[in-house]
Amino acid sequence: PIRKSDFNLKAFIEQSGHNLSLQTNIKVTKAHAMGPLYKTSKKLKMVIKRWYVLDRNKETFSSYRDETCRNVKDVIPFQRIENVYIDDVPTNCTKLLKWSFCIKTTTSAHLLIAASSYLRQIWIDILMTAITGYHDSS
Asked: For position 93, what pLDDT does the model report?
């Protein structure tokens, strides 16, 4: 059912128990989800804020420098996403890393960080629709 042309991402996420009206750091529509997430630098020495967009029409998860979406930094096609999961971070790490999650692709793993544990769960649920959609089609 995730691959149906009439699939409504926003309705699906709300029916999953998430109250999107209370969230200012994420916008979800019928076919898109967008909002800020942090990514780790190459050696985990710093985090960088990026604007992320999941586009069900293009079947991509993209990052941009900011919300104007003019300067694309990375594009992950749905077919490259293998798994999305909460990353176990050591307890001595910064508070921000407590809300990290990982997107495992066919070529690498991307560690992303949400602004709260609730937003992390929303993003994971959104990204899981992309994985399910891809695997259901094969």
From this structure: 55
Report yes or no on 23 lying in a domain.
yes
Give me the domain span that covers residue 40: 9-136
Interatomic CA distance for residues 131 and 100, integer angstroms: 19
* In a domain? residue 2: no
pTM for the whole structure:
0.86
Q: Do residues 126 and 20 make contact, with C-beta atoms less than 8 angstroms apart? A: no
CATH number for the domain including 26?
A: 2.30.29.30
Residues 18-38 have a mean pLDDT of 94
pLDDT of 9 above 60: yes
Helices and strands in the chain, H and E counts: 2, 8
